[in-house]
Amino acid sequence: MDFRQLRYFVAVAEELSFSQAARRLHVSQPPLSLQIKALEEELGSPLLTRTSRSVELTQAGALFLEQARRALAHLERAGEVVRQSALGETGEIRVAFTASVPMFEAFPRIVHAFRTDFPGVGVDLSHQSTGQQLRALASKDIDVGFLRPSILFVAPPNIATVPLWTDRLMAALPQSHPLARRSAPLSMTDLADESFILFPRGLGCGLFDHVGVLASRAGFAPQVGQEAREGATIIGLVAAGMGISILPDTYMKTGIPGVAYRELDTPDAQSQVLLAYRSEDGSPLVQRFREAAVAVR
What we know:
By secondary structure, the chain is α/β, with parallel strands linked by helices. The protein has 9 helices and 11 strands.
């Protein structure tokens, strides 16, 4: 039994005429009759009663017609799923992002636009550091990442990137700090003797490396007095007077009181968010998401 025989039987059962079914299927009548006969022999039961003037379903034929329609419908749905997958219109895409990315107004618009355009695609979002994302891309645990790497970042050969947004790193100071009273941008040397609150080095955060580069170029190594895994926690500790930090100006949107933000007088303070994906990944889903991100950015 094959799907061709099922299609032939359904056509005859619905038309109750071999000649009309043959025209509907664009086949000649003799092969159609042979296929129906072969189907009946395989099932061991007549499905149709034939006379010179009419064709009728047997009881077994009526029952088989219902199941044959279902089988053909399942086949059509399976084919449609495959076609949609080939076009990037179904399946699931795994997207990771660093902590500051959702604060960019374009990020929720990218996700919303993609889900609206491709409602058959599931979007699995996860919060990961830049280092974690690069490892997850390499191990194929995610499909796309929103990275905030250090200014010294060079993408591995198997990773492609697309620049999305830029902002600047700012000094985050307790409002009572003497440097907070300055209106002019601060130099990194102004911060050399401060106690820093930073993301843990082991977290794989590109921001930690970026701050280290800025300090190194100013001739010092940051004195890390406190570590925290969340940007909002760092800002809260700064407000509590536990130290200072350097964060993207995007974090100013948190609105946590007791913190003053001051610009840094160095072009190296510019930070960038990149969209990253495996360069050999030819998935239509990844291409669709990349196109959506570029269109909205």
